[in-house]
Amino acid sequence: MPLHDHPIDKRVDALLALSHEHAEIYCSPSAWLARERYLANHPTRILAMKCMDGRIHLPHVTRTPLGIITPFRNLGGIFHLGWPYLGEMLTDAVDEAIHSGSGVLLIISYHFSRGDRNRGCAGFACDVAAALAHAHEIRRQAESIFGRDHRHVYPLVCGFETDSDALIVHGIDDATLDIGTLQPSQEGELERRIASLCPDMPSDIRRDLLPLLKGNLQHVDSLRGITRDLDIEHREWVICVGRGFDFLHLPNTALIVGPYSPDLSQPISTAAAIIDANMKAGRVPDDGFLLLASTPYEAIGVDRARAELKSRFLSKFAAQVIAREHSRLVAGMISRTAVVHWPSRRLELLDHV
Fold first, then answer.
1. DSSP state of 199
2. What single-letter DSSP state applies at residue 235?
3. Residue 2's pLDDT band (cuts 50, 70, 90)
4. Is residue 245 domain-shared with residue 314, that is, in the same domain?
5. CA–CA separation, 179 vs 194, rounded Å?
6. Which of 195, 223, 251 is the endpoint of a domain?
């Protein structure tokens, strides 16, 4: 039986088990060594702004070790770098990289389906042109913060074609490189093509972009000839508020609201409306849904205490929005509040005080 058809208590248990499994894999000796070895050879810091859609799993489709790509996830991949908290987080990540002597590759992604427009990004009503335009706007904002010469921070717009898992790299003069159109024998051409597509990209950042593109080419080729279930109905039954949801890459399971926007009530209400519609349409059982609030922390003491306080605030705030605007859902709402030990990616549930 598919997960979304199980009773709510079993679904919640399965999701928490998935978070535990993710942390175990992330903390394994092999995974730690893979990250250390990768960073030794490719020190460019990679940040990715992307939609919360579970299909957009960049480490998987680029065959990159977990923990190399730092994600920023939000409904529809909609961001504004003027949002105070988001701007501070992004600047802090860039500062950390620069102080260690590394450049930054900022991947700004949008997604779409070639086979069926309706499998595109719901955040933009499946309008790929609107999603691309928004990605370019984020790029312009990044340039205004970090410089238009791109010497230290390179903002790169990338499409993600969900039918094939192929990346589409956008360069100068509206030129693109669609990995889905290449054959494995063309892997050796990638460096030359990226240099032509993005002539202002620093050589060290280009060097560290190449493994992602080569990994994506290998991944896309491995899927050719394989039948995939592409027509997946929206069956979300989880609302996640906050950060630290790296373990959640199940298609159409969770709606993630990052704590970035000055007005969190609107995306929380939108997420609740989607789940309400899923229940009414019979796409998921109407026996309940999960509200999961989470905040990462780096160290015990003050940092963890602040993360706890923030998670409790986000949980209470989201519950109030849902009660005010979607009161029908309250009776079936299961609320879990957590913090995530970021160095180990371990989700730690808090009591319900």
1. T
2. -
3. confident
4. yes
5. 11
6. 223
